[in-house]
Write a structure and sequence with these properties.
Structural class: mainly beta
Distance between the termini: 41 Å
CATH superfamily: PRC-barrel domain
Radius of gyration: 14 Å
Helix content: under 10%
CATH architecture: Roll
CATH topology: SH3 type barrels
Strand order of the largest sheet: 2-1-7-6
Shape: globular
Number of helices: 1
Largest sheet: 4 strands, mixed
Order of helices and strands: HEEEEEEE
Amino acid sequence: MQCRIADLRCKEVVNIHDGERLGFVDDVLIDTATGKMVAIIVPGPFKYLGCFGRTDDYVIGWECIVKIGDDLILVDVRGEHKRVKHPRRIWVGLP
């Protein structure tokens, strides 16, 4: 089965370990040396009432992905290792 990266953004990520709905794929990490996908990135939940930004992103390694379906991506991530500090993108204006 083939899937475009743009198609992954429409899929919700669910942790089968505890049933938690983590959110939708926001970005992917690709190893430029091999051309293989290394991880998917799901934005963390909003902090208090959505007024103070978000918590850390979920960076989920390719080895944790159990199944990619039509609407869902099932992952098996255990414990506190699922939230990882991921630097936010810095947008630079055009010259």
